[in-house]
């Protein structure tokens, strides 16, 4: 355990008013480090620092901003070893996942936005007849992307590297300044990111990080009059509250919220490929990921075979210490979350689902482990099929034909990412177009990291990733002149 962490405000490392709290390793229950508990006043001071820094940073040449982001990417890559160890300790992710999908993706995101992209484009000239607005004229126009201002980045616990980087990098590239409020469970990684940015030459106040377990810290950031936009990743319930606060002052929002991804598996599907894709729910972050295909909709001709294969797949996954090379399934983030996931499994039993595999706590003496669990013979009205469990739990619901499958997929409060498995590519794409969801994977759970990301319904508002993130963290200004 290192020295107690301090806050990062206005380019300075500041002692927290609220003292420190312990960050616990989900695999061992040992103390990883001491995280700072900011006061609401310090949170507001961070927002004020970002406001003061906004003017100069927004006027900094885009190439200079890009060079700083490139240096930050290199700094993160150079610290891959210790950063990965910290990510494993804070989150319980396996070493391979922490290295590639947390720290590695964070570096890639800073590198992605370390290039200058066009921020303005011509609009077709317009011929105006003489009238009350003046004589006849040809009017030229230019559309210009301008930074939003101060962006509050409220990030999730399941990926304390890639998630903040996906907000900070495009926001800075567009000339915004940021105040980051990391999840209380694993904020130490975000402070390491702030150190990398400081070493890369980010001016004081451009990046600020304030953490705390108290809800008051996040509320102070979101409600600050110095904040122009809130970018949030987390639960729908918290997202709704943030939207209410932002709505009062017309603050811009970008929200990536919950998911209950439907995976439609048709009779002609490659079952092995479908099982491998759906099986990532059991292993990847131990199911703590909003994009997971947690709600399997299986056509009846393939239903029994799919359930049997999924059960076999889940039962073979090694559960244990995420630092061990052979481990595939690590712990969930906390004891409280383990209890929540287990309560859903028990609820599924009471609702009439059949626990095909899992359902019992693994034998590890310490750590917050949940066995990969498959619930079959479900119906779409069960709570385990409608509510986000956020753990290594998959439900399976049968359907008869394409129309019923699409209807079941759409019968959800969520709409983040759905999946379709079928050997008939034309049908797969036809079904994908019918799904009311922000993204669809056709015969894959892979992501194209330039494709827009976001959800329908209660899964969120707005789109980011790739160039869409530059759109999200900017406002469009039109400039008109006589030709």
Automatic annotation (TrEMBL):
InterPro entries: Ald_DH/histidinol_DH, Ald_DH_C, Ald_DH_N, Aldehyde_DH_dom. SUPFAM superfamilies: ALDH-like. Residues 13-479 form the Aldehyde dehydrogenase domain. Keywords: Oxidoreductase. The keyword Oxidoreductase applies. One of its GO terms (molecular function) is oxidoreductase activity, acting on the aldehyde or oxo group of donors, NAD or NADP as acceptor. The keyword Oxidoreductase applies. It comes from the Bacteria. It holds the Pfam family Aldedh. Belongs to the aldehyde dehydrogenase family. This is Aldehyde dehydrogenase.
